[in-house]
Amino acid sequence: MKMFGRTILVLLLLWKQDSVRSVRLVELRVPTHEPEGGMALLGCQYDMEGDTLYSVKWYKDGREFYRFVPKNEPPVYYFETPGVNVDVARSSNTVVALMNLTQESAGHYRCEVSGEAPHFTTVFRQKYINIHLLPKGGPRVMGLREHYRLDETVLANCSLPPSRPKAHLKWLVNDRPAPSEYVLGPWYRVSTDRPDAAETILQLSFYATTADFVNGAVKLKCQATIAPLYQRETESTHYIAFPFTITEPPDAEEIKDHAASVQDSLAALLIPIIFLILV
């Protein structure tokens, strides 16, 4: 019985020792969205909890591209991988710097941390990076004029240079979303230079009325969004062209002179009539 108790105690102590020396991955910092041509910092924070670090490895879509082994000299290894360009000078056991991101850079990135022998306890975690092709410039509006007559059609197209993914365009009239009946589209036109990207077009069409032209003016705005990396807008103000001009009312002196002139005209007309009656 005593032997059985000692055996249980030894097993418990060994289990406790192993549990204390269990590698723990504290935080994985991998951006979810990055632009083409940019850079990304991949962070992997871990706690050895009494164990000794054997290696930190990074994988993209299951393929190893970076390894840090503190006992080796040099400790850093970089394996060429399509879409993965590592800035070794800025990388370490906890950070990997990627540069010159391309469409091929998108994928699952996994950090794997291992403890030393004899257990080589390993923990890992992964996240996905989306790579966006952002448009060169902001939204462009064509077809608008500065002045419109009442009941004339206001017609304009808002377009955004090619992007990936497709952009979300939105028209606003006096800082409020344009009614659905005012909007046509969107339409997409594939880029000849980048078949993976498309230009986005959204049309605005409505009749010029006093409901939209408040105090004779309307403010139109086109917003372009590619969340969460891009948001631009263009804004312009347009006016009602009145077909007539309002003249200033005559002043009191003009009215007085006009009344005197009317009285003189009546007197000149009545005097001959009275003379004929008396004769």
UniProtKB/TrEMBL annotation:
Signal peptide: 1-22
Pfam families noted in UniProt: V-set (PF07686)
Keyword Signal: yes
Keywords assigned by UniProt, alphabetized: Signal
Top-level lineage group: Eukaryota
Residues spanning the membrane: none
InterPro entries in the record: Ig-like_dom, Ig-like_dom_sf, Ig-like_fold, Ig_V-set
Domain Ig-like: 36-121
PANTHER family attached to this UniProt entry: BEAT PROTEIN, BEATEN PATH IIIA, ISOFORM D-RELATED
Annotated protein name in UniProt: Uncharacterized protein LOC113497331
Originating organism: Trichoplusia ni
Gene designation: LOC113497331
